[in-house]
Amino acid sequence: QVQLVESGGGLVQAGGSLRLSCATSKSIFSVSAMAWYRQAPGKQRELVAAATTGGNTNYADSVQGRFTISRDNAKNTVYLQMNSLKTEDTGVYYCNARGQFMAVAINAWGQGTQVTVSS
Asked: What local confidence, expressed as pLDDT, does residue 67 receive?
C-alpha cells in the first residue's frame, strides 16, 4: 500500500508563508510525478502544482509566482512553499503521487492537511 505522509499546514495571516511536505518511499517517489491539490469548502479539488521525475513543474494560474513545488530526491519528499498567501488559498491540501512501478499503476493520495489563511 502506497503511503504519503503530509505535514506543514496551519493557520496564517494573509501575506504570510507556509511550507507543506509530503514524504513517501523511495520506490514510489523515484517513479512518480508528485503534485499538490487543494479543496476549498464547497468546491471541487483542483491542481495547485506538479513536478515530474525529470524536474518539470507546472502551476495553477492562481498560484503562479507565489508557490513553488520542489522535490528532494535524497529525502523522497516533495515540498510546496507558499508565499504571499491569500484568503482564497484556504482549503485542504492533498499530496498526490502518480506513476507506474513494475507494471502497476500508482495513483496515491495523502490524508490532507488544512491550510487556513485569515484576513
From this structure: 98
